Amino acid sequence: MLAAVLLATSAFWAPATFAQDSKPLVIARNIDLNSLDPHRAFCDTCQIYNSSVYESLLTLDKDNKLIPLLASKWEGNADQTSFTFTLDPAAKFSDGSPVEAKDVKWSWERLKNLKGSASFLMDNVASIETPDAHTVVVKMVAPSSEFLNISAAPYTAVVNSKVASEAGAKADADASTTDNAEAWFLAHSAGSAPFVLKSYEPNSELRLARNDKYWRTAPALSEVVIRQTKDAVAQAQMLQSGTADIAMQIDPDTAKTMTGSDVKIETVPSYNFIYVALSPGAKANKVPLTPEVREAISLGLDRPSILDFTIGSEGQLISAPIPLGFPGGSGFEAQPYDVAKAKELLAKAGHADGFEMEAAFPGMNVYGVDLSLLMQKVQQDLAKINIKLDLQPIPFANWRERVNGDGIPMTAVFYAPDYYGTSQYVDYFAMTKGSPWSRRAGAERDPSVLNPKEADLYKAALAASGDEAAKLWHQAGEEMIKDRIILPLVSPNLILAYKSDVKGVRYSACCNLPLAELSH
């Protein structure tokens, strides 16, 4: 058995006991909620909500180490195909009923069968057994050294199955068509976490109240209000005027304008990044995007200049589509900038005079980076190697439809982790058959983009653990760099802006902003 067996005490993970605050804490941010149903939710605000109102079996500490939550101990077999969790017998839902193995089984089967955006987290689960009320045994389809990290993701929320079932929630194989509980979740919650849903007004605010029946250390805050505030300037104004306690999406330029001894600004590295992507199989391509052409495009990007132009010292360059700080994500060489070699490659490919290329992308500001301005810089860079970009900023919904349909020759977009684990990046970005970006790259129309080495490395990494797994993830990252389909550019820092009397603010790899640790 793996040495992954940990015993819990109530104080192992819990924040220090605080004097309870009666004043609501107000957070200003763009509320990007797609759902308050924990198994349909999939967004940044969803991570905050799910981890505050529901609980997973495990969670992460400040150093991204797994620690107990609903599970008091856990173990996995040597070949990473079976995991056993023992639930803490003290765990209770907000209605006072016990959290039992049947609730875990029901919740995880529902997550899988709803077929929502986060359902992929359960794709490798073959079966879930509950030999008694406090034991959950998960059997995998194939080895998965990532499953313990997945079980700490807020999307694996454990729901009170009795309460949710009575509200129309289903976990059966046909749940995607028979479950009708999403509307109920807009006004109710059924979790075991420190907070409960108090109210939600779309495009206005999300209000959480302290769970007075919480089974661990009670949160200090009696109420948390997340108030819809679309842009950084408005968030900064709310913070400085005292109408908000935390502003969550402040960009570097706005942060420089914020003054006052009662406002605290912290900058921390994030796991988010922005990238350019190419689609050799896009129907709008005017020339074949061969490996030589893709390499030329990569060589034509002046990445240090792009970093200076977008976020400067408030971020860092990233070479592979694996975040710095994730297993296997460090140690990649900086990607070269070489105009002469780029032109040589284009001439060799028969494009000495260059060509025109469509570049459609979401017209939005993300992590402090305006994608339109970013792509103007990319346009200027590629003009030096005689590639003329036709920039087309479009709404995100339209972008999604196009990139998943006929494809887009070149685009720019962003990625934030769904859990603390590297397999998600290979799942998403590798040129393996059926992966999201192999489809967007047009693998069905141009199978040459597929890279079988990545599939082998992925399988091997999931069967390994620790340093050996990290080494294999790094090798997969090297292969994804060689594909030159995904061209990562910058990883913006995260700016934490809050009133100086607010304590416990931190960025979490699993939960975004852990509300239970806050006080003021």
TrEMBL record:
<keyword id="KW-0813">Transport</keyword>
<dbReference type="InterPro" id="IPR030678">
    <property type="entry name" value="Peptide/Ni-bd"/>
</dbReference>
<dbReference type="InterPro" id="IPR000914">
    <property type="entry name" value="SBP_5_dom"/>
</dbReference>
<feature type="signal peptide">
    <location>
        <begin position="1"/>
        <end position="19"/>
    </location>
</feature>
<feature type="domain" description="Solute-binding protein family 5">
    <location>
        <begin position="65"/>
        <end position="432"/>
    </location>
</feature>
<protein>
    <submittedName>
        <fullName>ABC transporter substrate-binding protein</fullName>
    </submittedName>
</protein>
<dbReference type="Pfam" id="PF00496">
    <property type="entry name" value="SBP_bac_5"/>
</dbReference>
<comment type="similarity">
    <text>Belongs to the bacterial solute-binding protein 5 family.</text>
</comment>
<dbReference type="InterPro" id="IPR039424">
    <property type="entry name" value="SBP_5"/>
</dbReference>
<keyword id="KW-0732">Signal</keyword>
